Amino acid sequence: MPDEEIAEEGVATPLETTVQDPLLREILTENQAAADTPQEQPQPTSAAAEEVDCVVIGLGAGGAPLLARLAQAGLKVVALEAGPWHQPETDFATDEQAQDFLFWNDERLAAGGNPLAMGRNNSGTGVGGSTLHYTAYTPRPLPDDLTLKTDFGVGEDWPLTYDELAPYFEEVEQFIGVSGPTPYPWGPARPKGYPLAPLPLNSAAQLMVRGAEKLGIRTSPAANAALSAPYFQEGVGWRQACTNRGFCQAGCSNGAKSSMDVTYIPLAVKYGADIRPNSYVTEIERNAQGLVSAVVYTQNDQSHRVACKHLFLCAGAVETPRLLLLNELALTSGQVGRNLMAHTGIQVWGTFPEEVRPTKGIPGGLISQDTHRPQNADFVGGYLLQSIGVMPVTFAGQVARGRKLWGQALRDYLRQFNHIAGINILGDCLPHADNYLELSDELDNRQVRKPRLHFTAQENEVRMTAHAEKTMRDIWAAAGATDIWSFDRYAHVIGTARMGLSGDDAVVDRNGRAFDVPNLYISDNSTFPSALSVNPALTIMALSLRTADKFLENLT
Amino acid sequence: MTFQELLPTSHVSEATRAALTQRLAETSQAAAYEPQFFAPATYRLLVAVAARLLPQPERPVPIPLAPAVDQRLATGKSDGWRYDALPPDREAYRLGLGGVEQIAQALFKADFEQLTSSQQDKVIEAVASGTPPGEVWQTLSASRFFEEVLAELTIIYYAHPWAQDEIGYTGYADLPAWTKIGLNEKEAREM
């Protein structure tokens, strides 16, 4: 009986060690034994260590745009990316399991009342970061997304206005090639429309149009950072149009999706940026003045050190605060790891008499922002509505988790796959003291303390989700769906190193510069003071360019 | 078209074909698979539980589910996160499968593998309910354990080409571009 054996080995003596995983325990014991015997010391890292102007840690939406900007300005820049550099045409299979390598698969602990699924739901690794598997849904935030506190008295205002960010939104949209409607139906008029026409609507988008029309909800083809026509990309050449594979979340194999590896990274390389894949940062060194002086990292099992004048930390809202906490860096505000937010993201699924074939086409084909500030709302902020395509294995996993179907019932339901379509929301989230990231005492497979993410949906998120669920069930019923069910979920980790006006309650200033450490900048979703009611990628890229510009302005 | 028909065609990319071919090769080796992480008895129990969570009575050779779990646990691979409420995956699986035996004993005074299919389903229903009998479940969250095991086995099952045929999925045959993507629209290769 395995249970008794385990009861003795794992549970009866929990205080013996904080490491619960038996294999890890074994490795640690072996390491301990090895440490007792004299060993050849590892070679000290190169004494004539190189020094560069800037090191950038992380090559996703936060790191890649500023890397290109810094390289274009003629600075000597090195980028350290924990994951590999892929060749999408030959490496990316149209198969979800085979693409697992796109996710940050070191284990993270999900705690609280609504534990956040990480891995494929919420993380990325590789040159391009999470943009390698983002759905490329790139709406701009609306101006009042940045003024929640002013408008509602809760949450936080951004220390930046929409007008300050708008030129950067435009620059990103034009550079990476966003396909979308012109004019855009919500928000202020724009000097320039999207560079490409919207992508074609797939079945789920057509169904959402049908249901929303009956309810008087306006819809529009969405803005997606995937090309509806061939597009010229500096540093790359002509990128091909989207082939409607629908595998955005498993990596785009033809470069049509505007991930960082086919946009800002080739631009950075063209201007001399030094990209170092498979480089996992182990230490951030400081000098006597408390300034960052060097970064130590492991590449192919070898330790390296690169000295730098400035550091840009762009590792995302989990690894960025984790590196700060591990290195005891920029902690005086007490806000590192705090204010963890996640977008409300409830999905509603239904079965239709028509054939849907939900994998084909850009997943988020349609949008409505009529629910941005709903009139009858009993909550703060709002959300957008989106039609969603889905890949089969992802969907099956959600059915298992969300519907708890098993046995014959599970197989029978999934036989209807080609008739199933979904819609979801992406809504704001308020910071709360109970929602934060901390370092646990458990070690991961790199021997580093695992992060533990506490997240519990609070009253505002619960109310918004209820409002959204009713709205979406109504839309789906009006569109002709039967067997409607919902899957409550939260996506995107945001806000664990927030920006603000003062170092008393924020980690970085409005330019992304750490209050505590003048040569440290943070550029990723960890700096967001509020979650926004739109997908974060476009805003992360815009802030990245702005941070680079402000840095360059101050460079003497 | 079925998977068998589509796989050798130019509708499937080299990378995709390699992944799917590899998965099929693992299927043919599954019968002879020797567990690397689980003790033989625990492994048999996992096979029996998987056969109720995803029953495949119509298939002479079922889509193998347990080998992938055993391999993952043996190599210490993670899917990037775990419920903080659960112990590490290896411990959770061994504890939970032990708990399944405790339920079988509590309800039917027999080993899980000796029970009829409907009795086995009663045991699984007890885990899914979140409050099964047995000492193990005092410390291990039954509902979270059930969710984790069900999700992992479901993902393994539906990643298999035979299961994808079953649900009429042909999305892996994505060359050249899909042009018929609206309601009731199909390419010839989807017929």
Q: What does this 3D model show about the protein?
A:
The complex is a heterodimer of chains A (556) and B (191). Chain A is α/β, with parallel strands linked by helices. The radius of gyration of chain A is 23 Å and the shape is globular. In chain A, the strands form five sheets. In chain A, strands 1, 2, 7, 8, 9, 10 and 20 form a seven-stranded mixed sheet that branches. In chain A, strands 4-13-14-15-12-18 form a six-stranded antiparallel sheet, with helices on both faces. Chain A has helices spanning 2-11, 22-36, 64-72, 88-91, 148-152, 162-176, 203-215, 264-270, 316-326, 392-403, 408-414, 459-478, 537-554; strands at residues 51-57, 77-80, 108-111, 220-221, 231-233, 237-239, 274-276, 279-286, 292-299, 302-313, 341-344, 347-351, 366-368, 383-388, 420-427, 436-443, 449-454, 482-487, 490-494, 520-522. In chain A, helix 3 (64-72) packs parallel to helix 13, helix 6 (162-176) crosses helix 13 and helix 7 packs across helix 12. Chain B has 191 residues and is mainly alpha-helical. Chain B has a domain at 33-159. Chain B is built from eight helices and one strand, in the order ααααβαααα. Chain B has helices at residues 3-6, 14-29, 40-53, 66-75, 89-108, 117-129, 142-158, 161-166, and one strand at 81-83. In chain B, helix 5 (89-108) packs across helix 6 (117-129) and helix 6 crosses helix 7 (142-158). The longest helix of chain B has 20 residues, at 89-108. Chain B is elongated, with a radius of gyration of 19 Å. The interface between A and B is large, with 83 and 71 residues. Strand 3 (108-111) of chain A pairs parallel with strand 1 (81-83) of chain B, so a sheet runs across the interface.
